Amino acid sequence: MTVPAEDATFVDDDGRPRRTGGVWTTSAHIITAVIGSGVLSLAWAVAQLGWIAGPITMLCFALVTYCTSTLLSYCYRSGDPVLGTRSYSYMDAVGSSLGKFHHKLCGCVQQFNLFGSAVGYTIASGVNMLAIRQTHCTHRSSGGGSSSGACSTNASPYIIAFGVAQLILSQIKNFGQLWWLSSVAAAMSFTYSFIGLGLEIAKFASTGRIKGTITGVSIGPTVTPLQKVWRVFQALGNIAFAYSYNMILIEIQDTVKSPPSELETMKVANRFSVAVTTLFYMLCGCFGYAAFGDSSPGNLLTSTGLKPYWLLDIANVAVVLHLLGAYQVYSQPLFAFVEELAAKWFPDSRFVNKEIKIRLPGSSKDGNYYYNFNMFRLVWRTVFVVVSTVISVLVPFFNDVVGLLGAIGFWPLTVYFPVEMYIAERKLARWSRTWVLLKLLSFGCLLVTLVAAAGSVAGIIDDLKASKGS
User: Fold this and answer.
1) Which DSSP category does 256 fall into?
2) Transmembrane ranges (predicted)?
3) Which of 58, 149, 154, 231 has the fewest beta carbons closer than 10 A?
């Protein structure tokens, strides 16, 4: 891009608009990206692990996340971390450091993870909408109203309603047109997270007794030894899901001004952000377990044991509003990827490439308020939403799916690629001490991913059996 000389002060060395981000804005981006629906299952995760292993596991994930995010920060610029060529996305950084094969592999993992997130968000929204209905039903029952037997336990209608809303939102063409939706989603994530924490503290204060045990949920009539093992593994996936943000770190780092170097700013921002989120996660997980003990719910805000009901309803509405936006934030890059690929493969196809301008109601004849209609976009995005909704209806188990998503994304995106990129960029000698330590870290996290995925799949199978038997 050519820039007039008088405008040179407003651009960076790569010709793009001058970056203005600092430590505080970067930390805010990271914290906003991390704190979300993952907090809803932390109390359940701590309940499976117990009072010792639960907090220690969260600290271990925090340490791994901090280490690998710092390694990834070194790879924003290829060659030299201060003067090297910039990367504008996670995939760009992988390709620059590791080559085309890893670039394509990273793309496949990312796109699958984005699709999985869409499924997880659809399930969470349906479950939390159902929770609003159940809260009012239970409240009326306790007040002498309708019988408790009338309280619905089927989330499918609410999942489908969420899918219908996404059918409409998904037809917005450009990610940039969704800035308002992203802002609302970020505000809502903080709303329900802090309300959830407040309700946990109130629940704990109302009893004045710390529930739970050192070893977590006890083996007994309702939990077999094998189920205990699977749930411990699944809890690892739930915690991993809550911490994952490396896949957007390069995009965040690309907003940082220099000097000082982007690397130095990101080091401070990573340290501060991981510390803040870990403290918040500790409070959410531990207060939830202290309040509910072994009966900690898989989704905190679906518990009818939290009061006042009206505040619980506000939190659940905030979850739905957040996930309406989060679904699009995660899906739009996948939409754009497929549409760009289709345009490249079929450059002469009118079905793929033709844009039809439709004047929006209320705009003047000569106005510029148009909707660009494209048949391929309509069909592809509709199919995407329908498939994600159908899967959500068939497997409506929030913390099982969250555990699986956390497991699938943790090792490749949070650990493997950052470790391999750092080794390549720093040209670490094979079998050197740092090389061995990083490889051991990667292998250990791979094992965590495998057992977490196995536990989550086992949880899904158990829940499917239970739902068929009920």
Assistant:
1) B
2) 26-46, 52-76, 155-172, 178-199, 272-290, 310-330, 378-398, 404-424, 436-461
3) 149
For residues 42 and 285, the answer to whether their CB atoms sit within 8 Å is yes
Output 146-150 pairs: Cβ under 8 A, ≥24 positions apart. Answer: none
Question: For residue 70, what are the CA distances in angstroms to 14, 151, 159, 379?
Answer: 23, 49, 38, 41
Kindly tell me if the per-residue pLDDT of 445 is higher than 80: yes
Amino acid at 91: M
Residue tagged 């870990």 (tokens)? 278
Distance CA 25, CA 10 (A): 19
Residue that the structure tokens 């943790």 belong to: 410
pLDDT reported for residue 364:
54
Specify the CATH number for 5-469; select among 3.40.50.10330, 1.20.1740.10, 2.40.110.10, 3.90.1150.10: 1.20.1740.10
Amino acid, single-letter form, for residue 102: H
pTM: 0.86
Least Cα distance to 230 among 408, 459, 411, 450 occurs for: 459
The separation between CA 215 and the C-alpha centre of its own chain, rounded to angstroms, equals: 28
Residue 254, pLDDT score: 85
What string of H, E and C letters represents the secondary structure of 93-124? Answer: HHHHHHCHHHHHHHHHHHHHHHHHHHHHHHHH
**What pLDDT, on a 0 to 100 scale, did the predictor assign at position 354?**
79
Q: What is the pLDDT of residues 297-323, one digit of tens each?
A: 888 888 877 888 889 999 999 999 888
Give backbone dihedrals phi and psi of 168, rounded to 5 degrees, phi first: -75, -50
For 42-84, the pLDDT digits (tens) are 999 999 999 999 999 999 999 999 999 999 998 888 877 777 8
Q: Is the pLDDT of residue 392 over 60?
A: yes
d(CA 329, CA 174): 11
41-50, 138-147, 285-294, range with the lowest pLDDT: 138-147
Q: Where are the domains of the chain?
A: 5-469
In this structure, what token pair is assigned to residue 62?
């925090």
Give the list of residues 6+ apart from residue 16 with CB closer than 8 angstroms, or none: 1
